[in-house]
Write a structure and sequence with these properties.
By secondary structure, this protein is mainly beta. It has helices at about 1-25, 170-175, and strands at about 35, 40-45, 50-55, 60-65, 75, 75-80, 85-90, 95-100, 105-110, 115-120, 125-130, 140-145, 150, 160, 165-170, 180-190, 190-195, 205, 210-220, 230-235, 240-245, 250, 260, 265-270, 280-295, 305, 310-320, 320-330, 335-340, 345-350, 355-360, 365-380, 390, 390-395, 405. Among the domains are: about 215-305, Hypothetical Protein Tm1070, Chain: A; about 315-405, Hypothetical Protein Tm1070, Chain: A, CATH 2.60.290. It contains two helices and 35 strands. The strands form seven sheets. Strands 19, 20, 21, 22, 23, 24, 25 and 26 form an eight-stranded antiparallel β-sheet that branches. InterPro entries: DUF5719 (IPR043777).
């Protein structure tokens, strides 16, 4: 009995000693965490037959959709394509396709997305091009919106697109009359979606964009004819929409766009008529929930489609035969921007809430860049106003840049 008591006491003493000793040990110093910048990789899908123009100073690779990317060449890139093409670089690049027929225009290349929205005026003349540049299958659901609400269409759900494959769908089969808004979502994978003219017709190409509570569309040229604003509401709620124009001297509300309401799952066409006073202009569209917006410029058969842009401090595009550059300042303070078109550089002052059109005639291919201290929008416009090259951000937003913190203590 005594022996058991002594053994128990000894065990307790040993345990206490171990605990005290452990508490006196100096912990090993933890290595400091390291911040690692991720390599920025841009992969864009360019659809259409024409001239692909890509601005960037890194090595740019290009290959038809579904084929391996070859070794890149130093940018910028100016090449001819006749099928959906992937362009890629390990830095931020800006690309688009310049077409001459059936309608002259410029369509930005886009990154694949799990959802997007766009609007077309004439679905009977339009086909959808759905491209899957990824290594996994994509499944796409389309929601079609008409002036009176959602359009139920057979074949608009569960559209399967194999990796590296493009599918073309006649929009006239799903919605024969316009205008129509189209929202897409993927239950798996990502796609790039383009609306373009069917053979023998002349409608502008429009790339799908994310729906947004606020959209800013620039590039409406002076003396533009037939300016029409298309809006779509992919939500289940009725939404009030406000529209303001950034004109040559002030910000104002175009009369035809006053007091707009969008019913659920509907599309609305607003003819702006002469309300923009023939000035170079931009539009800001606001709603309480994300909506889609497109501006059509020009007479039927020769329209150009303008999509929402992204205001930034550093913008650029590779353009051809530029006549003017329009800079829109959506802010509340004046901006002085540095505009470069090829070898031409100038300072441009843009009052708050206005659009300035700057003569910058250049023949041939030229890099067009704008740098400012606060975000602006900019668009390069051809001499006849039929081709608009929207400038896009050329510097990564620091708030969303890919940075990870590596913990060296983890193995």
């Amino acid at each position: 009995m005594l022996r058991k008591v002594l053994l128990s006491l000894a065990a307790i003493v040993v345990a206490v000693g171990l605990a005290v000793g452990a508490s006196l040990l100096t912990p090993a110093r933890k290595p400091p965490a390291q911040t690692v910048d991720l390599v920025r990789a841009t992969k864009l899908t360019c659809v259409g037959a024409g001239r692909v123009l890509v601005l960037g100073d890194a090595d740019i690779s290009a290959a038809p959709l579904g084929e391996p990317l070859a070794a890149g060449t130093r940018g910028p890139l100016d090449a001819t394509i006749d099928a959906p093409t992937i362009v890629s670089a390990n830095s931020l690049i800006v690309g688009g396709v310049l077409t001459s027929s059936p309608v002259a225009g410029y369509t930005p290349c886009t990154a694949p997305m799990p959802s997007g929205v766009f609007q077309v005026a004439d679905p009977a003349s339009t086909e959808l091009v759905l491209s899957n540049p990824d290594a996994n299958e994509a499944a796409v659901d389309l929601t079609l919106m008409g002036p009176d609400g959602e359009i139920t269409a057979v074949g608009s759900r569960g559209i399967a697109i194999a990796p590296g494959v493009t599918r073309t769908i006649a929009l006239s089969v799903l919605a024969p009359e316009g205008p129509v808004g189209v929202a897409y979502t993927t239950s798996q994978g990502r796609v790039s979606v383009l609306a373009r003219s069917v053979p023998g017709r002349t409608v502008p190409s429009i790339s799908a964009r994310p729906a947004a509570e606020q959209s800013i569309i620039g590039g409406i040229p002076p003396s533009a004819q037939g300016v029409q604003l298309l809006l779509s509401n992919p939500s289940e709620d009725r939404l009030d929409v406000s529209v303001v124009a950034f004109g040559a001297t002030s910000t104002y509300e175009p009369a035809p766009a006053a007091d707009l309401t969008l019913p659920p799952l509907s599309v609305l066409a607003v003819d702006l008529g002469t309300s923009l006073a023939g000035e170079a202009s931009g539009l800001r569209i606001d709603a309480s929930q994300p909506i889609g917006a497109t501006v059509l410029v020009g007479p039927a058969g020769a329209q150009n489609a303008l999509s929402p842009g992204e205001a930034a401090e550093s913008l650029g595009v590779l353009a051809v035969d530029v006549e003017t550059v329009q800079v829109t300042n959506p802010g509340v303070a004046p901006v002085t921007a540095t505009l470069t078109v090829g070898d031409l550089t100038m300072q441009v002052s843009v009052p708050a809430g206005t659009t300035v059109s700057v003569p910058a005639a250049t023949s041939g291919v030229a890099a067009v860049t704008v740098a400012s201290d606060t975000p602006v929008l900019a668009d390069a416009v051809s001499a006849d106003g039929k081709v608009v090259f929207p400038l896009a951000p050329t510097v990564e937003d620091a708030s969303v840049a890919g940075v990870v913190v590596a913990d060296p203590s983890l193995r």
